[in-house]
Design a protein that fits this description.
binds 5-S-methyl-1-O-phosphono-5-thio-D-ribulose, Four Helix Bundle (Hemerythrin (Met), subunit A), Rossmann fold, 352 residues, 39% helix, 2 domains, globular, 4-stranded mixed β-sheet
């Protein structure tokens, strides 16, 4: 990434600086979040988006939420922390990294509960930045682990944006492409535009162009045709939440792409950090799916494209069953034929 998607500025009384992803690719503008409401709003409206980046934003949101709490009494401080965490959890329901990031922050506060309020706040900021720094390393490892799956000259289809914008840096699905390119492989990427909010067109195409990767933009409805023409040898997407059995929630349309890949005998890979697994959920049917406003479909980007009063269904994610996934690429290694057993084998005792 030419610029980090999210940064903390200053000490524990500081602020968050974000790239406003809703304005890309025509405008590269920073937004500054000084309080919890503004970071909540930034997550809700997709100024900051993509599961790992949401996790980082939520962790930094906890620091913002606690910065004006000056309680000397630990009970009051922890009561406030509970409220801050509960509020942030309402920003978006599907990406588990949001809940994971907040849980890590609560844990660190608990571990420091015998310290002064100032020291607990410092520990919270330290943890939020640690989550961000760890994500940088994790993304590189995902790239390393996945790049071997690509051969020189391969065509790859991707859906939505799982790049540097969606993470601390480098991405998950796009990390695999960046690494393959660093290894000297020539990869041709087909980016689904990803209706309704066009993360593929606006963000993935922008990132890949910046990285000098050969990228061709297609409408979502063209994926089957592109596969039939033999232009892609695999699909790589990111994930928002992976159930214990490998069923994977990702941007709406991903499930359809997985069916198309199966029909055409094309491997379908999911690239995601371990923090995106939710082992408390047995299968994909239990993953909460966010529904967003009808205007995203009827008034996409300022112009009405549907009759007034028409009924709209706008789920932001869908679930790809594990049986359609060839492998999940994580920082710990590649899980071929994802199943509860294969996932447990790689993740060991890890529970998100
Ligand atoms: O609604 P969004 O833009 O937050 O959805 C993002 C995705 O679906 C990504 O593919 C996923 O979060 C992985 S990002 C590394």
């Amino acid at each position: 990434m030419p610029l980090p998607t999210i940064e903390w500025e200053g000490d524990s009384a500081g602020r968050v600086r974000l790239i406003d992803q809703t304005l890309l690719p025509t405008e590269l503008k920073f937004v500054y979040c000084e309080d919890i409401k503004s970071i909540w709003h930034a997550i809700k409206t997709l100024m900051v988006r993509g599961a790992p980046a949401i996790g980082i934003a939520a962790a930094m949101g906890v620091v913002l939420g606690m910065k004006d709490v000056h309680a000397k009494d630990a009970d009051i401080f922890f009561k406030e922390l509970k409220q801050v965490s509960s509020y942030l959890r309402t920003a978006r329901p599907t990406a588990v990294n949001l809940f994971w990031g907040i849980a890590r922050m609560e844990r660190i506060a608990e571990e420091n509960k015998n310290k002064s309020v100032r020291e607990i706040k410092e520990a919270l900021l330290h943890e939020a930045i640690k989550i961000q720094n760890e994500d940088k390393v994790i993304c590189r490892q995902i790239g390393e682990n996945g790049a071997g799956l690509l051969k020189d000259g391969n065509g790859v289809l991707t859906h939505c944006n799982a790049g540097g914008l969606a993470t601390a840096d480098y991405g998950t699905a796009l990390a695999v492409l960046f690494k393959a390119q660093e290894q000297g492989k020539h990869i041709k990427v087909y980016a689904d535009e990803t209706r309704p909010l066009l993360q593929g067109a606006r963000l993935t195409a922008w990132e890949l162009q910046h990285a000098g990767i050969d990228v061709t933009l297609i409408c979502d409805s063209m994926a089957a045709h592109v596969m039939k023409l033999g232009k892609v040898q695999c699909v790589i997407v990111g994930a928002d939440r992976i159930a214990a059995n490998g069923d994977t929630a990702n941007k709406i349309g991903t499930y359809g792409v997985s069916i198309l890949a199966k029909e055409h005998g094309i491997p379908f890979y999911v690239a995601a950090p371990v923090s995106t697994f939710d082992l408390s959920i047995k299968s994909g049917g239990d993953i909460p799916i966010e529904e967003r406003s009808p205007e995203e479909i009827t008034n996409g980007f300022g112009r009405r494209t549907a009759p007034e009063g028409v009924k709209v269904f706008n789920p932001a994610f869908d679930v790809t069953p594990a049986k359609n996934i060839t492998a999940i690429i994580t920082e710990k290694g590649v899980i071929a034929k994802p199943s509860a057993e294969n996932i447990q084998r790689l993740l060991g005792t890890f529970v998100s």
